[in-house]
Design goal:
The protein is α/β, with parallel strands linked by helices. The protein is built from 15 helices and 15 strands. The two termini are about 30 Å apart.
């Protein structure tokens, strides 16, 4: 006779149905307290959403939203086959409760625990992790297979220096003054013209707002569209920068699975129909690389129309499509004006530029500009002027065309090298767009362990599991190819093969 699982009960989990605080938030607060106080130990298994909902007498979605927030903040872990457990490594030092402290010991002063002074949102943001070394001094030396980095050696440095110097000489007095919150007008006009031709985006220059990269655009949109506690759909797996920006706005993240057609809109509708916002990468989903099908695009737009929700369309590297023409933007299909289109120059020019933009529906422009006044006001003007000239004089289109050919050759080189060196160790799949591939690991191989071993062999990878909130059916690694030469790719696959052979099997 099968054993019955013991009921998961604790007096502090009792929820107050009469409270104005949402039940999901109450449950999140109570579980978080049990973890931080040590009453739920690292590795302790939590009940399924269905079982806990039954025990508490609440809807399953209530438990799902609480678990999702705890997953996003790394308090718990979820893996297919092993269920949901308390994280092995908690996101912050667990404070000692008064009951646990010795009566003879004086408690540490609050300043010794910096995160304790933060808001819940601040503590959550402090724990969002990007790829190791992304912003370290060592990151200046690019190694195989760094993700999301263009070839900086192939950038036309001399031309850029000439344009920047010319702008400084001709417009220095203007550059020293504060600029309009929306950004440098000639750049906004150049972006609007380019997007209309290259991406099928329907907009005027008045709808374009220059931001500090795509990250600044996501953050700005989230701050005016979300109230604390609002639900937001995020792709799972998906971009951690978007998750951080939405958490910073107080959102409850709703992970929505991605398949070969992109975001599963039906699954999102079932999990949280009344979400306030959805963040998507439809042209080239990060990290899986799939493109959202037309039926899914239309379904997403219909959901936004019916629910008066918003869609953040992040079009971060769609210029690099190697088969056919780049797919038109979702924004071009939007008749209800619910899509905020987001782009960046970090992938097509260079990351240090830190310039991005958003295209807002006309009804949102004034609110976005008002909010902008209380943050960075506007990005540096000289860089905006140089980018405007780079586009208007035709250098931008020529540069993209050169890089597309270069990256296509490197993509092919990586596929050939992987077939030669990584057969049986890594199943490499390359999407038709982008700057990285997915390598699927054999069953029983942990992606974090594989990435650690790769790092020991001077190889950079990102475990796919670090980009997921809900757990994945397969373990995988992200391998970037844009920033390294074909010679470095061939050497990298050989070293990666050596690393993977040393990874223990579960």
């Amino acid at each position: 006779m099968p054993k019955r699982r013991a009921a998961f009960t604790h007096p502090t989990l009792a929820l107050d149905h009469a409270s104005a605080v949402p039940l999901s938030r109450q449950l999140y607060d109570r579980l978080r307290h049990l973890i931080l106080s040590g009453q739920l130990k690292a590795g302790a298994r939590l009940p399924s959403t269905r079982d806990l909902a039954s025990e508490l007498g609440v809807a399953r979605g209530t438990v799902f939203m609480a678990y999702t927030q705890l997953l996003a903040e790394n308090y718990i872990e979820s893996n297919v086959g092993s269920g949901t457990t308390v994280a092995s490594f908690l996101p912050q030092e667990v404070p000692t409760t008064p009951a646990q402290a010795s009566s003879s010991r004086t408690p540490d002063p609050p300043e010794r625990h910096p995160l304790a002074a933060l808001s819940q949102r601040g503590a959550a943001l402090a724990q969002i992790s990007f790829a190791p070394g992304t912003f370290s001094r060592e990151s200046r030396k690019v190694r195989a297979f760094r993700v999301a980095t263009p070839d900086l050696e192939a950038f036309p440095h001399k031309l850029w220096a000439q344009l920047a110097a010319r702008c400084a000489r001709a417009q220095m007095s203007d550059m020293l003054m504060s600029q309009h919150q929306a950004g440098y007008p000639p750049l906004r006009e150049a972006i609007a013209a380019h997007l209309g031709v290259a991406r099928g985006v329907r907009c005027s220059a008045e709808q374009v707002i220059i931001t500090s990269g795509a990250q600044g655009a996501i953050d700005l949109a989230a701050r005016i569209l979300l109230d604390p506690g609002d639900a937001a759909w995020v792709e799972d797996p998906g971009y951690p920068g978007a998750k951080g920006a939405l958490l910073g706005a107080g959102a409850q993240l709703i992970p929505v699975p991605v398949d070969e057609e992109g975001l599963d809109v039906a699954a999102g509708w079932a999990r949280c129909q009344q979400a306030r916002l959805a963040y998507v990468t439809p042209a080239h989903q990060f990290p899986l690389g799939v493109s959202m099908s037309l039926s899914r695009r239309l379904a997403l737009l219909e959901w936004a129309r019916q629910e008066s929700a918003w869609i953040l369309e992040d079009d971060y590297d769609s210029e690099y499509r190697y088969v056919g023409r780049p797919l038109a933007a979702l924004q071009g299909l939007d008749e209800a004006q619910r899509v905020i289109y987001i782009g960046t120059f970090s992938k097509v020019l260079f990351p240090g530029l830190r310039l991005g933009y958003l295209v807002a529906p006309p009804a949102l422009v004034d609110a976005l500009l008002a909010a902008r006044r209380f943050t960075d006001i506007h990005p540096p003007a000289l860089e905006q002027a140089a980018v405007a000239d780079f586009i208007n004089e035709g250098h931008f289109t020529r540069h993209i065309r050169r890089m597309r050919a270069l990256y296509a050759a490197r993509r092919d080189a990586l596929l050939n090298a992987a077939q030669r060196d990584l057969a049986g160790l890594l199943e490499v799949q390359a999407p038709e767009t982008g700057m990285h591939v997915i390598g699927w690991l054999p069953s029983g191989i942990d992606a974090r362990s594989a990435a650690h071993q790769a790092a020991q062999h001077q190889i950079e990878t990102i475990p796919l599991s670090t980009l997921s909130l809900g757990g994945l059916r397969r373990s995988g690694l992200l391998l970037g190819y844009a920033a390294v030469t074909e010679e470095e790719i061939n050497d990298g696959t050989r070293r990666l093969a050596s690393a993977l052979r040393s990874v223990p099997t579960a």
